[in-house]
Amino acid sequence: MKLTIVIPAYNEEGMLVKATQRLPKGLIGISQIEKVVIDDGSVDKTSHQAQSIADTLIRHPINVGLGGALATGFAYAKQSDCDILVTFDSDGQHKASDIEHLIRPIIENKADVVIGSRMMGKGYMPPSRKMVNYIANIITGLMGGQKSSDSQSGLRAFNKKAVALIEIKTTGMEVSSEILCEIKRHRLRLQEIPIAAIYTEYSQTKGQRISNAPNVFFQLFKRLIR
Amino acid sequence: MINREILQFILIGFLLHGLYTVWVRFRAKKIVFFGYLFWTLLFLSGIIGISFPDLTVFIASQMGIGRGTDFVVYASIVLLFYLIFRLYSLVEDLRLQIVVLIREIALNNRIKTKKKA
């Protein structure tokens, strides 16, 4: 089985190497692991650094947004015929060791998509992030019908079927909610597993913020009515 | 105070220029036939409305609106919303097309690093 780890990155020169240095080199049930960095038009040294940690570097000429970067990752996964696709944030928030647990339900054919839930994990989550997540979960559930304990998690695993069916059309942060809507639309089997989240001052400046919320849901609404 | 006829003349001049521009753009294949029809009808109805103000009063009374001017204002607001929507859709479509283009370029120029997968 081939595992492709997609790491979207935008101006992450300060964290990319640190965030990805512990990515697994081998896993039980996996014969090949490919690390793919999607540099979303960074203007710093992200691309340069990515070449030392990734097997493949895909560089957007201009910044498109998280959704656009993930969609490029999905397109690459389809082209490269991978069996499992994992998305992994480049801001140092995820623990690489969680990937092993994340892909297990897919290897055992118990799920098509697995989401690493920070809300189910026992680690500390800043109250502001917790609140953003609660609101996002409710609105994503109302809009797409798919319940999730962590709709905005960046650590996810998809099997081949899910990669083929999920169509990402949004380009920004709303992609996380869109993926859940797509899971529901295609009736994919979803599992959530607890993961640890590492919150540093740096990682808190990245990702979803409460100020993003109105735009995220407006974009998601637009996606639904298109 | 501007005479009503002069005002009508100026407004009709603007609309005729609009009609001409639409025709030129259609001939240059810069707008599709539906677009040509839409804009031509829009400018023509403007010219008719300005030339025969009593007509707008008649339409307004048929629709239960008191004055012809009110009818024109209401119709313009609806039209402006529609045009903003069309413009918004166009910009959004263009943006998504650019994203697809960026993706194609990025995938075609992907770099396989020295590390082997």
Main attributes of the structure:
heterodimer, A: about 230 residues, alpha/beta, 7-stranded mixed sheet, globular, B: about 120 residues, mainly alpha
C-alpha end-to-end distance of chain A: 36 Å
Q: Residue-averaged pLDDT of chain A, rounded? A: 89
* Largest interface, C-beta within 8 A: A-B, 26 and 17 residues
SS content category of chain B: mainly alpha
How many strands, which pairing sense, and closed or not: the largest β-sheet of chain B?
A: none
Query: How many beta-strand elements of chain B?
Result: 1
Q: Assembly state here?
A: heterodimer
Low-confidence stretches of chain B: none
Based on CA inertia axes, which overall geometry of chain B fits?
Answer: elongated
With strands numbered from the N-terminus, the spatial order across the biggest sheet of chain A is 3-2-1-4-6-5-7
Please tally the helical runs of chain A, counting DSSP H or I stretches of 4 or more residues: 9
Instruction: Indicate the mean pLDDT of chain B.
Output: 84
Compute the number of strand runs of chain A.
Answer: 7
Written as H for each helix and E for each strand, in order along the chain, the element string of chain B is: HHHHE
Word description of this protein:
The complex is a heterodimer of chains A (226) and B (117). Chain A has 226 residues and is an alpha/beta fold. Helices cover 40% and strands 17% of the residues of chain A. Chain A is built from nine helices and seven strands, in the order βαβαβαβαβαβααβαα. In chain A, α1 (16-20) links the parallel β1 and β2 (32-39). The N and C termini of chain A lie far apart (36 Å). In chain A, 51% of the residues are buried. Chain B is an all-alpha fold. Chain B contains four helices and one strand; from the N terminus they run ααααβ. Chain B has helices at 4-27, 33-51, 53-62, 68-108, and one strand at residues 111-112. In chain B, α1 (4-27) runs antiparallel to α2, α2 crosses α3 and α3 (53-62) packs across α4 (68-108). The longest helix of chain B has 41 residues, at 68-108. The model of chain B has no long low-confidence stretch (mean pLDDT 84).
